[in-house]
Q: What sequence folds into this?
């Protein structure tokens, strides 16, 4: 039912050949999200999702009303102009493989999509914050700290969506629900973070060729591991 090698971006090409956002224009991606995340919560209550317009997903029950949208959550930095002096030193096929891998289900998550009190959504906040750099591993670290009541660059944003995070009861519950176990240590006490990272003191965007290669290596391992986990989960 789930092809973990499917490149959703390839499906999101417009009629004139223009590239469109697969989070909004890939029907396969929307269906994969519906299949994967319609399941029991840690409480045992069913979290059933329905597909609605704009490629979003919807849940309504005694638990509350939730609108969720897709987010390609793993940046490759391959189109960042400020990094072109680095990425141009990497073989084109290597960059292309990294981009394709990041566009598979292993690199994609869902977040609540409705703004609260006029603030940024989680998707927007993690993309705009210079100490997050749109990185999934750093977002997961912020979520870990959120459940502990600890500050992070995304704490205020995550707090606005406390009703959503309450569904999962704990950091372990959140990680297990979204099949992100490969991003954390065995006891869930820490997050596996690709370099560069200095505890949110500065930008986490690679600044050298060595940093970018290290970032790519760890990130690809995490993507492959989550794809494998998703494949095994859906084969049961």
A:
């Amino acid at each position: 039912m789930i092809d973990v090698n499917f490149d959703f971006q390839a499906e999101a090409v417009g009629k004139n050949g223009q590239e469109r956002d697969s989070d909004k224009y890939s029907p396969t991606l929307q269906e994969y999200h519906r299949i994967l995340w319609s399941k029991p919560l840690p409480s045992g209550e069913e979290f059933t999702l329905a597909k609605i317009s704009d490629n979003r997903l919807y849940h309504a029950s005694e638990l509350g009303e939730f609108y969720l949208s897709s987010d390609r959550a793993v940046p490759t930095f391959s189109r960042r102009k400020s990094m072109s002096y680095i990425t141009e030193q990497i073989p084109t096929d290597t960059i292309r493989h990294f981009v394709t891998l990041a566009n598979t289900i292993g690199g994609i998550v869902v977040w609540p999509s409705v703004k609260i009190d006029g603030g940024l959504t989680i998707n927007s906040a993690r993309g705009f914050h210079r100490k997050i750099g749109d990185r999934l591993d750093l977002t997961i670290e912020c979520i870990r700290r959120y459940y502990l009541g600890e500050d992070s660059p995304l704490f205020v944003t995550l707090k606005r969506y406390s009703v959503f995070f309450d569904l999962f009861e704990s950091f372990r519950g959140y990680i297990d629900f979204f099949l992100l176990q490969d991003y954390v240590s065995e006891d869930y006490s820490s997050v596996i973070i690709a370099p560069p990272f200095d505890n949110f003191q500065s930008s986490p965007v690679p600044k050298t060729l060595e940093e970018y290669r290290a970032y790519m290596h760890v990130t690809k391992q995490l993507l492959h591991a989550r794809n494998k986990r998703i494949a095994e989960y859906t084969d049961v």
About this structure: The longest strand covers residues 64-72.
